[in-house]
Amino acid sequence: MERALIIQNLTKSYGREPVLKNLNLDVPAGTIFGLIGPNGAGKSTLIGILTGLLTFEEGGITINNLELNRSNEVAIKKDIASVLQPPLLFENFTSIEFIRYICEMYKNVPDHLDDKISSLFAYFEIEEFRNIQTKQLSSGSRKKLAFCSALLVEPKLFFLDEPFESVDVISIGRMKAVLRKLKEKGTTIFITSHILEVVENLCDDIAILHKGEIVAYLDSKSRRELQKDSSLSEIFEQYIDVSSSSVETLDWL
Amino acid sequence: MFKLFAELNAKLWWRSLQGVEIAAMIFYSVFIMLIVGQFLGVILLLLFADVTMAQQIYPWITPDIQLFANFVFVNGLWLSQIFFTKINRLRLNENRKLLAFGMPVGKLTNYLNIAGFFHPLNLMFQFFWLIYLGNMAQSSLQLIVVVLFILANYGVINSLKWRFRLFSSERFSQVGAVIVTLVLFFILLSMYIDYTPYFVSPQSAAEAFLGWLYYSPGYLIYYIGAELTGLTEQIVLLSVFVVLLFFINKDLAANTKAALLTPVQSTSATQKKSQLSGFIKWLGHEGGKYFYAVWNHKYSKIQLLITYVFVIPYIIILGDGTYVIGVFLTLIPVIFLMVMLTNMFGFENRELLLSLQLPVETEYLVKQRITAALLVCLSGSSIVLIMVPVFIASLPVMIQVHLGIIFISLVFMHYILKSSINNYKKIEEVSVMSVSNPVLPASITFTSVFIVTILGIFTFIIFEPYIWYHIAALIAANVLLLISLLKKLKTISEPFKQKVIPRLWNEL
Q: By the CB < 8 Å criterion, does A108 face chain B?
């Protein structure tokens, strides 16, 4: 099976503190992949490295068959898009200026751009913010705008860090529907989250990241087997050390 | 509660200090001490020396001249106070968090207002007024009136200045137009009125202007200290100040409270006409976006406005010395440079992370930003260079001044490039009151002015027999600085990747 992302022996530290330790991960192309883990597991750091914002000490990364290095940096970035948490927007731009700017930077101004923007804004109910500076948008609207801009550049690999945080229930449903449609078209979607319900119904393969290491990789087949007897939450707890987290330890409360 | 507030702000201040800032603060303190010393000297002469005694040192002093000097001093001090009064309330974004830990908003508002009053610069003016007016007061009741005046004066200036800042940041073009018109008016006025006799003969200046100065705000202040001797007058004024202070206090509390509870200013909802596309056409996608962000930062415009307003009158008044002309003309491109380039990665700290994810090389991105900033500054500097022939007729002197301006600008480009990497600081608009840019505080502005003044000695002073050697040395220095700058530009993206990006990521 073709791989959209291959990570081999990746190591990243902040000072002396290792954040990612000898991490290995393969993500199949054309699937929705979920990376879950508790707070501080290293999910956002991994996204930072994969989107070219952070460097790493050791290991190798291959994205869409190109090794991530200085010479391939621009070619790789042309085929990826990301929505980080919190979403990054150009704060002085209006929503429409922001979307146009992103498309121009990707040199990917699709035909009928205005129509596409209008339909996306209508779908996510942010039409009224078209000519409003992004710094004035609510956090949910910011997330939806970042999501729209990523869709318009038509990435082959789409990174989403906590994509549904601060988004309302209706919009979450719509975003999920869009992601499924993208998958049908062959786009690979990489989602990180610490909320299991987010990935449970949406993702094909799931990996659990804990203290900078992949402690479990569950493909769709093994997930089906395991989830016959236990929920994803229970499976998650098996891999994460939760022994000391009993509420009984708070006897003073 | 107060301990919590004091501890938080002391730690914030201490941890915010960096090498450059400490140096700047030392310079700034020296500057303040010099000003204090200078003012005190003037006050002593004006206040304590009676005319016959003063005439032994300065025979030209007459009662009229002494009164004239008093009025000029009081007006000058009051205008300086309007300009320099600090209206910021410590770090609102951090102090606001105390509200979440149970501190009542009213109490925090009061603490912040008191802290604002005790800012060293504000305190300096209160001290001057107290010494000057307090020493003239003849009764304890008059002294109380003086103290109440000092408090009310600070409150009124603070309140008005805050409103002016908000107004000018929202309607910059209108305010700018008014100020430019006023400046042009004064330039024209200065061209038609010959002030030389007044500088030569203070007596004629006193005779000509004393009558007018009785209608100035300075006279009212002088009156409180020197002429408010009647009991009825004192009681009336005391009552007026008490009422005024009550309302001013309410107003300041309301302003601070609004700033505390309004983290982001929400102005007009829709953007009417954006200049973004024009900037992108001129300076490229990244450069145009960066300049758009800088230009839209309120402080940039206010800083430019203030600098222009401050520099031009000096040129008019002291216009016949090459050194003074050179220094004050150089300040314009230098402030331009500082606004454009200082901490260039901090202006859009979070947004820069998004730019880095786009399919462009980091080197290209960083260089386009710097090139854009240099292009904008070059446009500003060219106006200054055109102005030089207006003030200087001699060709060699004109060339020397041109080269001097370029020399100092290049020195600052080096300094600012280095500073933008090493002194990276997050910039954010935290409240309706904090319109100032934390990267370019008054201490840094002052230090830069000080450096320009020192460099001006080496560049603008004319040694007639050696002028061509001087010009040759300036050309050589400029060429060396330019080569070094171009070399730095080639490698600037490396320290940027090493130092700035990790910090941006941590702040995300």
A: no
